[in-house]
Amino acid sequence: MISFIAKRIGVGLGLVFVVLTLIFLAIHAVPGDPAAVLASGGASGTATPESIERLREQLGLDKPLVVQYLDYLAGVVTGDLGSSFRDSRPVVTTIFERLPNTIELVVLACLVGAIVGVALGAAAGRFGGWVDSLVTAFSSLAISVPVYVLGTVFILVFSLTLGWFPAGGFVSWQADPVAHLRLLLLPALTLSIAFIGVTARMTRSSVVETSRMDWVRTARSWGLTPSRVFSRHVLRNSMTPVATAIGLEVGIMLGSTVLAERVFNFPGLSALLVDSVVNRDYPVVQGIVIVISVLFIAINIVVDLVYRFLDPRVR
Amino acid sequence: MLTRFRRIAGAFTVVRWAALAFVLLLVVLSVLAPIVVPVDPLAQDVANRLLPPGAPGHLLGTDEYGRDVLARILNGARVELLIAFGASAVAAVLGSLLGLVGGYFGGVAEFLTMRLVSDVLLAFPPVILALLIVTIYGPGEWTLIAVMGILFAPGFARIVYGQTLSVKRLEYVDAAKAFGARTSTALFRVVLPNVTAPIIVQFSLVMASAILLESGLSYLGLGVVAPAPSWGGMVASGQRYMGNDPSTILVPSIVVVFTILSFGLLADALRDLLDPRARKGSHA
After folding, report:
1. For chain B, domain boundaries
2. What is the fold of B9-39+59-277?
C-alpha cells in the first residue's frame, strides 16, 4: 500500500513537471518573437515597439531560455507566479481570492452528479425495461447539451418565468447562508447534468456486465434476496470503472465551470480567466492553467488512492 | 447484398435514422446557405430588430441588430461544421499515428507516444488548455482547429494503440513481414486498414465533442470572433433579450443540441454497424 501511494504520487509529480514544461514551451516555442506575438494578438492587430519591449522585460524574455525556464520552475515551486500585466498584483493572490468559490461550486456539482448518476445507472442496470430506456435516453441528451445552453435555459425557466431562483450573482456564506445556497443551486445543477449522464451510463454498463458473472449466479443460488445480491455483490463490484470515469469527469468539470460561472455571473475563477484571455494578461492565464492542471492531477491521485483503500480486492 | 442490408437495418433504429437525416440536412443547407437564404448574415436592419420567428421575410425572425436569424444559423453551421471536421481530421491523423507507432514498436516508442504525449494532454482540462492557446495566438478558426486537433488526439491514440497491440500479433502481419514488407508498409498497408472501424466511430464522437467545445468558446467570445455568426455567440447575445423573446436563445440552442446529439447517435450506429463486438453503452 505504502509503495503504491509513493509510486502514484511520484508519477503525479512527474506529470506536473511535464505539464509545467509544456505550458512554458507553449509561449516560448511560438515561431518568431513571443513578445511580439503576445503584444499583437496573434496574426491580427499591431503592436508598437515600446509595448513589445515592455512585455519582453515583464516576462523576462530578454534572458537566455534556460535561465527563463529555471526562473519559471523556481517561481512555481516557491508559489510565485508573477504579477498581472493589468493591475500588477501578484497572480497567486488574485487566484486564491477566487478559487474557493469555484471549488465550492465544483464540489457540490460533483457530489450531486456522482450520487444521482450512480443511482440512475444502478436502477437502469437492475430493472431494465422502461427504466433502462428512460435513463439511457436521459444520459444521451444530458451529455449533448452544452453547459452554456443548459444554464441559459435554466435562467429562462426558473428565474425569468417561474421566479423561483435569482438569475445569478453571489452572496457570501457569512452574509446570508440561505441566499448563498440559493445562488449556488442553479449553477451547480447546470454543471452536474452532464456528469450525471456520464456516470449513469458508465454505472449501467458496468452493472449489466457484473450481473453476468458466475459468482453473482452463485450468490443467487444461495437464496439471497435479489436486493441483497444487487447491493452487496453486483453494485460494489461494478464501481471500479465508474470511479475512473468520475476522476476524468471532474477534470472536464474544472473546465466547464468557466462557462457555468459566466452564465450565472458567479465570481469564481471564470470571470478572471476570460477577462485575462481577452486582455492577453498572460501571467494570470498561465497561473490559472497551472493551478487548475495541478489540482486536476491531484484529484485523480486522490480518487485512485481512495479507491484502492475502499476496494478489498486491491487493498 | 441482403446481409449487408440486414446489418444496416439492425444498426439503425428510427432515432438513428433521424440523426443521420438531421446531419445530412444540416450539411446540405449550410453548403447551400447563400442559395437557401440569399440574405447577408451580417446585414443589419435596425428598424426590424428582434422580430419573432415567422415574421414575413424572416422565417426564424431577426436578432438585436435586425440580422436574419436563419441566415446566421446556416452560415454559422458552415463555420461550425468546417472547424469541427478540420479539428477531428487533425486529431484522427495525429492520434492514429501516435497509437500506431506506440502500439507497433512498444518500449521507448510507447513511452514517448502514449505516456509522454497522450497522457500529458489528458492532464489538462480541455477548456482551460484551449483558453491558454487562445491567449497566445488570439481567437479564430485556425486556432480552434489546431488546438482541438491536439486536444482530441489522445482519444484516437488510445483506441488505435489498443487495436494495434492485438492486430500486430496476427498471422497476416507476420506473413507480410516474412514476405519482406518494409516497416512502413506493415504499419500503413497492413495494420492501419484493420483498425479503421473504431477510428471512424471515434471520429463521429469527436465531431460532437468539437462542436460542444467550439460553441462554448464562441459563447465566451473567444472562439469564432463576432460579428461572424456562431451558435455559441448567438446564445450569448440572445441572453439579454430572452425575457421578452425566448426564441433568441431557443433557436440556436435547439440547433446546437440536435447537432451534438445526432453525431453521438451516429457514432452508436456506426459502432454497431462496423464493430459489432464492441457494443458498449449505447445511446438509444
Report:
1. 9-39+59-277
2. MetI-like fold (1.10.3720)
- Give contacts of B136 with chain A, Cβ < 8 Å: 26-27, 30, 37-38, 42, 282
Chain A closest CA to B105's CA: distance in Å? Answer: 23
Give the distance from residue B211's alpha carbon to the nearest chain A alpha carbon, in angstroms: 9
| pLDDT tens track, chain A, 315 positions | 788 888 888 888 888 888 888 888 887 776 666 777 777 654 445 667 777 777 777 777 777 788 888 888 888 888 888 888 777 788 888 898 889 889 999 999 999 999 999 999 999 988 888 999 999 999 999 999 999 999 999 999 888 888 787 777 777 777 777 778 778 889 999 999 999 999 999 999 888 888 888 888 888 888 888 888 887 778 888 888 888 888 888 888 888 899 999 898 888 888 788 888 887 788 888 889 888 888 888 888 888 787 777 666 655
Shortest Cα–Cα distance, B137 to chain A (Å): 4
The answer to whether A147 contacts B216, with C-beta atoms less than 8 Å apart, is: yes
Contact A289, B132 (CB under 8 A): yes
Q: How many CB pairs under 8 A join A and B?
A: 155
Q: Phi then psi for B58, rounded to 5 degrees?
A: -130, 95
Q: Which domains does chain A have, with CATH numbers?
A: 1-91 (no CATH), 92-310 (1.10.3720.10)
Q: Residue for cell digits 436592419?
A: B45
SS3 content of chain B, % helix, strand, coil (to 5): 75, 0, 25
**pTM here?**
0.87
Residues 6+ apart with CB under 8 A from A50: none
ipTM, two decimals: 0.85
Q: Do A44 and B140 touch (CB under 8 A)?
A: yes
